[in-house]
Amino acid sequence: MPEPSVFSRIITGEIEAERVFEDEHCIVIRDRAPKAPTHLLIIPRKPLINLLDAGADDKPLLGHLLWVASEMGRRMGLDGYRLVMNNGRDAGQTVFHMHIHLLANRKMREQDLAD
C-alpha cells in the first residue's frame, strides 16, 4: 500500500498546517511556499489522485470544491483570483492528492501557473 500523501497526513492532523476552512468534504490551508500573497490549497478529504481519478460519483464533491473556492474568495474580499489544478506529473503535479490552488492579490500572468 502506498504511503499517505502529505495532504492525507495534514487532513488527519499528523502534519500541522494553517487551516482557514474545513467541512466534512474538504479542508482549505495556506500554502507553505506561496506563489502569490494569497495562496490557498483546497483539498478534498477523499484521497483522489487527481481529476483523472475522479468518477461520476465524485461530481457532487467536485462541485463542492469549486463552491468552497468561491466562498473563500467572498470571505477574503478578493476582487479576483486564479484557480489552478495540475493533473498528472506532465502537468506539474507534485503532490498526488487532488487539490485546487487559489492564488490572489498579485497580478497574474499566463506563465505564473502553480506547481
UniProtKB/TrEMBL annotation:
The keyword rRNA-binding does not apply. Keywords: Hydrolase. A motif (Histidine triad motif) lies at residues 97-101. Coiled coil: none annotated. The active site is at residue 99. Gene3D superfamilies: HIT-like. Pfam families: HIT. Its EC number is 3.-.-.-. Transmembrane segments: none annotated. It comes from the Bacteria. Residues 6-115 form the HIT domain. PROSITE patterns: HIT_1 (PS00892), HIT_2 (PS51084). It is an enzyme of class 3 (hydrolase). One of its GO terms (molecular function) is hydrolase activity. InterPro entries: Histidine_triad_CS, Histidine_triad_HIT, HIT-like, HIT-like_sf. PANTHER family: HISTIDINE TRIAD HIT PROTEIN (PTHR23089). This is HIT-like protein. It comes from Microbulbifer aggregans.
